[in-house]
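TL;DR need structure tokens for one chain.
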Amino acid sequence: MFHGEVLAINIASNAKAPMEAVDYALAAPGKGLVGDRYAELKGAFQRGNNIKPDQEITLIEQEAIDAVRRDYEMVVTHADTRRNLLTTGVPLNHLVGRVFRVGEVRLRGMKLCEPCSYLESLTQTGIETAFRHRGGLRAQIVTGGIIRRGDRVEPDDSEQS
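>> reply
TL;DR here they are.
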């Protein structure tokens, strides 16, 4: 059992736009975070006018960023990772296939959000290697609502896949 917290929320208006910190975001099932590139159909890996469930929202652990800073001596911020939610106290790799809550919103972990060369091209050399297997989680929005900085993150065992 874990009980974590949302430390920060970031969105970007399009694929190459800088990430913008916000205090809250509306999570819309089948759409993503309102105002974010994938919800606006402007994501780098989006095809056509659809959003895949694993493109709706992304999360990364503060602990992973701290480990990269320590292990690779890199200066890395949450915005550099291009993930929507920054969490602490949440074992994201273990949430693949599981439903969990972020405040009033229910999410389903879809797959690990491994870093790629595109991320490295937008940020810095070495970030792809540094975040391998700790690049966060891609999730589907099961039940929408507002996600706020400071929201609690916890398991939801009422529905598991």
